[in-house]
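Study this fold:
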Amino acid sequence: MSNLGLRSPFVKVGGLVHFARMLDKIRAHAKGELSADYQANLGRGFDASCVTFLRVDYNQLVERVKQGGTDEEILRWCFSADRQPSEDQIYVWNEFMRKRGWNDEVSGTLKRRKKEAGMADRSEIETMFAFIDADEGRSLIVNQL
């Protein structure tokens, strides 16, 4: 798969991983530019984890994104809704998300996705974030950030 203009899940907005990528998908979908391969998981998976962490409703977030604004403005809107996580909470969130697929309940999904993508032999791909980057043609060097 190519990246289709989606940012890496490692890219941070307001210190949070995945948020920028989720916004990219929402914006692309609103313009009718999001590949069908991505549409089935809108608001699910990592998106659902992110909105749960932020305590916002995914559909309300979609509507807010459609109104426009920068990533930072939209994140501030999320924080104003109910939750302003502390630096420690953001750190824990980031580390949890960054390691999804590494010896946890997502490991089987990671193994299956690697096999489907012809990457079963890529031992350096140990997490879902690394898989997403590899699958979309990004260098795994970003994983070290």
Summary: The beta strands are 12-13, 16-17.
